[in-house]
């Protein structure tokens, strides 16, 4: 994941994952993300070929590093309303700066 924080609070970047519910649902490359950062609170959305994910959370400073603690919801496309129950996933992530 790469995030750039603009002066006006907008965040842009890309997010790639190898975790998929169905083969090809996450795409084969990092997807664009767009969101907002304000008062150390952050939210962004990522659109995949067959799903969309929203992330919300907070940025903490720990040992002079910014750590993002995020909650996410993923909604996958399903063929009909009878399958809506299986279209939603929820989870948590912690993102730390990449060490080079």
TrEMBL record:
Domain of life: Eukaryota
Gene Ontology CC, one term: extracellular region
Entry keywords, A to Z: Secreted, Signal
Transmembrane segments: none
Compartments it resides in: Secreted
GO molecular-function terms, A-Z: biotin binding
Predominant localisation class: secreted
Pfam family, one: Avidin
Gene3D superfamilies the UniProt entry points to: Avidin-like
The name this protein goes by in its record: Uncharacterized protein
Organism: Acrobeloides nanus
